[in-house]
Design a protein that fits this description.
CATH class of the largest domain: Mainly Beta
Organism: Aeromicrobium chenweiae
InterPro entries: Big_3_5, Choice_anch_I, Ig-like_fold, Mesenchyme-surface_protein, Phytase-like_dom, Quino_amine_DH_bsu
Number of strands: 72
Strand content: over 45%
Protein name: Alkaline phosphatase
Structural class: mainly beta
CATH superfamily of the largest domain: YVTN repeat-like/Quinoprotein amine dehydrogenase
CATH topology of the largest domain: Methylamine Dehydrogenase, Chain H
Distance between the termini: 126 Å
Radius of gyration: 40 Å
Number of helices: 5
Oligomer: single chain
Helix content: under 10%
GO biological process, one term: carbohydrate metabolic process
Shape: elongated
CATH architecture of the largest domain: 7 Propeller
């Protein structure tokens, strides 16, 4: 939890995550666990392969939608700590900025509905702020900070009826409260009274913000016996009556035992309270029944490897933490003897992980080491701006048993995710998955009776449309939808990545594409992405260099050249700095191309946003887009050079180093002053058709324009200052795909490519988590031949050497297939006679030779069907008319030797043809007299005949023909009969 200096009164913006150990839900705990100094151990960043269930995000509800009707949507409002009614259908959250508590109807987890709010001004003062909530039966316990100043802390507990938001009772807490927890049997409520320090105050002889800063904090325990009117508060002091340190606190080695600074509370099944003292790096165990302090121990220190501790634009887990105090924030009971803490740190430390302690002796059972930070890096969620401070900053923690599995949920305040672990064995937590959240996930609320998890976020900035929300996740069958892209380990650490804003296919490799990050990462890098798995994997990173040194570029466009290397488009902070670079395969810059001054002089800071290339007889052509309008005067940006909402697409001809420009008319932005529309990518579909990303500046519920359009370039180049305005055709509306994640709809749809097999891929730029949730959505958008069917349509032609043939004759057809401009079709063709296939062939260099067989006799209509390929749509030729005549046959008859009258004699009959085996009947005649009729089926047939007259006889065989064969007769055979 973070603290802020008080103005006239404390600005209690850091609200408490509560740890609930009741059967209905098990706590959202605040604080981190304490431990002795031990070597940190790592939890695997790979999900447990033996699991069949995952948490699936069902909805993200922006809480500004639940503002009172008289307030504008831009009003500051957050959702920090939450609890839920016993039936799990009404969620209650604290809103410190709005100084109210809010209610959500989550009966349908897919469609949460705002159920109104309760202003604390109605209960007390307009400056009162809620710090935590808990639901007990039909009441909401609202913890309220009413402090006048840091030195005059105060607070109360309001008991509000859930059904009508009426306050039933108010209990003085005697100090500034933080978190609350309620025991499983609802016998006790425990509240940490922090009496937080002033970060600007300077105690005598100490540094600014140091301890002690009195009055000291303590714990209030409310006995929940009977009706609220009968509830009693009991104070448990953590210092002596005279303010002196308790011996157990001194023995534990706390930083300043006279100023405990209680933070988060959690109660186990035996009514023992675990309490974190964040600034003191300590943990206290209290028996609530006796109010006795049982154990005090230090959370200990951590020395470990595998962190990123430098804010330098490089995400690399090669640094170390040395002797760093954990300073735990959220805390929760794993079981009745183990507690877990999220070690956010405060002013002197933070181990960037979480720890499981044995609460009986304070020993460390397990520690996350650097594995929590590895998760942030692997999932592209690492916030390098926080590298020199507390990294991923684990703050919230909740523990619950859902569907028979004991889970720990650990929230990253600065990397906007919740990591899920199976902690059935406290000594060996198993990582299950990462849940993406909106900015500053603070409250983590399991709702086990409904297999749900609610995560509420504390960051709200309407100016950049980063809005606080409540996200819901449901445990169910099947793999999780997030992540859609992760990085693999290289040399023992995950590849550091973020802000993917450019994509390119790898020529000839359907399973691999490339991606690049913008200026968020330094130096510039090109990532290799394996897309063969359901989740894309970044497998390696190539550093871009110039003159032997790593190059710092703002890569917004990427194209892998078939000849090797890349074209890169780097967007500059000024118009003149926008540059296109060509690299070799090693990433070394070989050539740079600047924009012509007549363009760069009119570009402010929305310059190059994509690059692609085509090749034809005139050489290589590089295409790029300017994101927004050119301005007549870049200083005031009031008049567009080419007219309203017209951006430019440019072609650079490598051979003669000339530029040619075309206009693209953007859709109009939403007219509220906070939106603009621009281009974010260009990808060649063929040599004269290009796909471009057009997107607005809006995100979340306001997002409305995330589209891919196709444009055709005219055959003739522009002349002089002519700027042809291109016609654009809708190709893909990506907004439904982005909303289908059920998360915060991402603003920056920035990367798009067509892989070698025609698969379409897109990606959102997470902006390095600046004014963004940090979630990257990697999109699979179908096939090019389907989406760009008009541009990639084919023309199939069937030709034969003649229009007549005979049955059985060998005939070779030529099938010619043409595709889009510059596209050479591949694939297979099939020649058909009606529904009968008479030949198949493979297209090479745009044509296929197909040997036909089985053509039936008669007038035939043949067609060729082309099956399509990655860049060419399937097609069918016009019919080709051909007449197939019956095939010619040859018949022969042979009789060996002399014959005797009336005696059997063997004769051989042969019927043959070219290309087929004739069948049918053959008649042997002696003159006009039939001697024998037999059936033949190709080859030679031996038959017996009898001649009944002596002398010389003339025999002949007659083949009668068939439906495919012409008749034929043998020559005359002379036989002497004795």
């Amino acid at each position: 939890m973070s603290h802020h200096p008080l103005p006239a009164r404390p600005s209690r913006l850091s609200l408490m995550v509560r740890s609930i150990s009741r059967p209905a839900l098990v706590g959202v705990a605040a604080g981190a666990l304490a431990a002795a100094v031990v070597p940190a151990t790592s939890a695997s960043a790979a999900p447990d392969p033996g699991t069949s269930q995952s948490f699936h995000r069902t909805a993200t509800y922006p809480v500004y939608k639940n503002l009172p009707k008289d307030l504008p949507a831009s009003s500051a409002t957050v959702a920090e700590i939450s609890d839920v009614s016993k039936d799990g259908k009404t969620l209650v959250y604290t809103d410190a900025l709005g100084k109210r508590i809010g209610f959500l109807d989550i009966s349908d987890p897919d469609r949460p509905v705002g159920a109104g709010s309760l202003s604390l001004a109605q209960l007390g003062d307009t400056d009162d702020q809620p710090t935590s909530v808990a639901v007990v039966g039909k009441y909401v316990l609202v913890v309220v900070d009413t402090s006048e100043s840091f030195t005059k802390p105060s607070g109360r507990l309001d008991v509000v009826r859930l059904s009508d938001s009426k306050r039933i009772r108010s209990i003085d807490l005697e100090g500034q409260p933080d978190s609350i927890d309620v025991s499983a049997g609802e016998d006790y409520a425990a509240i940490a009274i922090e009496n937080q320090r002033d970060e600007e105050a300077k105690p005598a002889g100490r540094a600014k913000g140091d301890l002690p800063q009195l009055p000291p904090g303590f714990v209030q325990v409310i006995d929940l016996d009977g009706a609220p009117a009968d509830w009693k508060a009991h104070r448990i002091d953590l210092v002596g009556p005279d303010g002196a340190a308790l011996p157990s606190f001194v023995d534990a080695g706390l930083a300043e035992p006279t100023d405990p600074e209680p933070e988060y509370v959690s109660i186990n099944g035996k009514d023992r309270l675990a309490l974190t003292l964040q600034e003191n790096n300590g943990i206290v165990i209290i028996d609530l029944a006796t109010r006795r302090i049982e154990k005090v121990f230090s959370a200990g220190r951590v020395s470990a490897l595998g962190f990123d501790t430098k804010k330098d634009g490089k995400i690399s887990l090669t640094d170390s933490l040395t002797d760093v105090v954990r300073e735990p924030d959220a805390i929760g009971w794993v079981d009745d003897t183990h507690v877990a803490t999220a070690n956010e740190g405060d002013w002197k430390g933070g181990s960037r992980g979480w720890t499981v302690f044995d609460a009986t002796d304070g020993s460390v059972t397990w520690d996350a080491g650097s594995s929590f930070e590895r998760l942030a890096v692997q999932h592209g969620l690492y916030n390098d701006d926080r590298a020199a401070k507390k990294g991923a900053e684990p703050e919230g923690l909740a523990i619950s048993t859902i569907d028979g599995v004991r889970y720990a949920f650990v929230g990253s305040e600065r990397s906007n995710f919740v990591a899920v672990y199976d902690i059935s064995d406290p000594a060996a937590p198993r990582f299950r998955q990462v849940l993406p959240a909106t900015n500053g996930p603070e409250g983590i609320l399991p709702i086990p009776g409904r297999n749900l998890l609610a995560v509420s976020s504390e960051t709200d900035d309407a100016a950049v449309n980063v809005r606080a929300s409540v996200s819901l996740y449901e445990l169910g069958d099947g793999p999780a939808a997030f992540p859609s892209i992760v990085s693999d380990d290289v040399a023992g650490n995950p590849v550091g990545w973020s802000a993917l804003g450019a994509l390119s296919a790898k020529p000839g490799d359907a399973g691999t594409i490339y991606a690049a990050a913008d200026t968020v990462l330094k130096p510039a890098q090109v990532f290799t992405v394996d897309v063969t798995r359901s989740t894309a994997h970044i497998t390696s990173a190539l550093t871009i260099s110039q003159d032997g040194a790593p190059a710092t570029l703002d890569v917004e466009g990427l194209y892998a050249r078939p000849d090797g290397g890349f074209w890169l488009a780097s967007e500059g902070a000024t118009g003149a700095a926008n540059t296109i670079y060509r690299t070799n395969a090693a990433g070394e810059i070989q050539e740079s191309v600047s924009l012509p001054t007549e363009i760069s002089d009119h570009v402010k800071n929305w310059g190059l946003e994509g690059v692609t290339a085509t090749q034809d007889a005139d050489g290589e052509h590089v295409w790029t887009v300017i994101q927004r309008q050119l301005w007549t005067d870049v200083k005031d940006q009031t008049e567009a050079l080419d007219g309203d909402d017209v951006a430019r697409i440019g072609r650079y001809d490598v051979k003669d180093r000339t530029w040619h420009w075309y206009g693209y008319r953007l859709d109009s932005p939403k007219r509220d002053g906070g939106d603009w529309v621009g281009l974010s990518e260009i990808t060649a579909v063929d040599n004269d058709t290009f796909a471009v990303i057009e997107r607005d500046k809006l995100n979340g519920p306001q997002a409305r324009n995330k589209r891919i359009y196709a444009v055709d370039i005219p055959a003739d180049d522009p002349v002089g200052d002519e700027l042809p305005i291109l016609d654009k055709k809708p190709a893909i509306d990506v907004l439904p795909e982005l909303r289908a994640t059920n998360g915060w709809t991402q603003e920056k749809l920035e990367g798009f490519t067509i892989a070698a097999d025609g698969s379409l891929y897109g990606v959102t730029d997470n902006d390095g988590l600046k004014d963004s949730t940090g979630e990257t959505v990697f999109l699979r958008l179908g096939q090019a031949r389907d989406v760009f069917a008009d541009a990639l349509r084919s023309s199939t032609t069937l030709s034969l050497p003649r229009r007549t043939t005979a049955y059985g004759q060998k005939l070779t057809a030529t099938v010619t297939v043409t595709g889009g401009a510059g596209v050479t079709p591949t694939g297979t063709v099939t020649v058909k006679d009606g529904s009968t296939t008479v030949g198949r062939g493979t297209v090479r260099n745009g044509a296929a030779k197909v040997t036909l067989s089985g053509l039936r006799v008669g007038a035939r209509q043949l067609v060729a069907e082309y099956g399509g390929d990655a860049r060419t749509v399937r097609g069918t030729s016009e019919p080709f008319a051909i007449t197939v005549a019956k095939g010619a046959t040859r018949t022969s008859l042979s009789i060996a030797g002399k014959a005797r009258k009336g005696k059997a004699k063997t004769a051989k009959v042969t019927v043959s043809a070219e290309g087929f085996a004739p069948t049918g009947t053959v008649t042997i005649k002696n003159g006009s007299k039939v001697l024998k009729t037999v059936h033949v089926s190709g080859g030679t047939r031996s038959v017996t005949i009898k001649l009944d007259a002596t002398g010389r006889r003339s025999l002949k065989a007659y083949y009668a023909g068939s439906s495919v064969a012409k008749p034929s007769a043998s020559g005359t055979v002379k036989v002497r009969v004795r």
